[in-house]
Amino acid sequence: MALGRRHYLIAAALSLPLVGAALVAAWWWRPPPGLGAWGSGAPPTGWATRARQEEVWKREGVHRRIEYAYLPLSEISLDVQLAVLVSEDLDFFGHGAVDVRAIREAVEEWREGGRLRGASTISQQLAKNLYLSGERTLWRKVEEARLAWWMERKLGKRRILELYLNIVEFGPGVYGAEAAAAHYFGTHASDLDADRGAALAAAIPSPGRDNPSTGSRRWEVRRRLIRARIDRVDWLRDRLGRLNRQRADSRP
Questions:
Q1: Residue 62 structural domain
Q2: How confident is the model over 57-115, as pLDDT tens digits?
Q3: Most buried pick, 47, 81, 98, 120, via CB within 10 A?
Q4: Residue 35 lies in a domain
Q5: Strand pairing of 67-68 and 169-171?
Q6: How many CB atoms lie within 10 A of CB 83?
Q7: 144: nearest Cα among 167, 122, 117, 175
Q8: How many separate domains does the chain show?
Q9: pLDDT, tens only, 44-56
Q10: CATH number, domain at 229?
Q11: What φ, ψ does residue 170 adopt, rounded to 5°?
Q12: Is residue 39 part of a domain?
């Protein structure tokens, strides 16, 4: 009787990893809710980062409205697109939802005594902005990777870039390139040159603290670096030019 029980316990213990793997696989293959609504046209208004900002203002008694306006990718200046890609994800078209090489390089730099920098792709950043909380945990990073994988599978690179440029935050409550162009420069995103594109892209890592209005030293350093990079990526400008001429429902 004791031997049979021991065999049962051993079999149960051996099966636990298999059960766990099956549960993880089932979770990974479950599509995120409402992803179809993001497939084309102006996105729904209730994405996560916007909802958090509105909640903060409500809690603090701030009477202010979100600044936001949607533009198709082809109506956003190529210089803005270039600035964002060279600052946030230069190899956006060359990797999948997660850039394994960038993660490896970031970890190696950290082990050598450097600061642990972010290595999130634009797809991961979009997933976080649309769906996730602002907490920094391992579980959130795994969920971010899963959502990014589904977005690349269902939406494609072109749509991901279009959505990102329309909902990324460029300043407190200022979402998307069109709203940022109006807020900071009194013009449209289609009219922004490389200098102003770099100024906007430099605000993305910390939009509340470092943006064209604050003119902080950190923002200025980023802006100059991004502006210099723009002049060295003619291959990416050509790629974006072709992408902008494609139909919106294509998925490169």
A1: 49-245
A2: 999 999 999 999 999 999 999 999 999 999 999 999 999 888 777 656 655 654 555 55
A3: 81
A4: no
A5: unpaired
A6: 28
A7: 122
A8: 1
A9: 777 899 999 999 9
A10: 1.10.3810.10
A11: -110, -5
A12: no
Query: Comparing C-alpha atoms, which of 66, 46, 75, 80 is closest to residue 174?
Result: 66
Of the candidates 230, 227, 172, the one whose C-alpha atom is nearest the C-alpha of residue 199 is 227
Does any domain span residue 109? yes
Distance CA 184, CA 180 (A): 6
Q: pTM of the predicted model, to two decimals?
A: 0.83
- State the Cα torsion 180-182-186-191 to the nearest 10°: 80
Q: For residues 35 and 19, what is the distance between their CA atoms, to the nearest angstrom?
A: 28
**CA-based R_g, the chain, Å:** 21
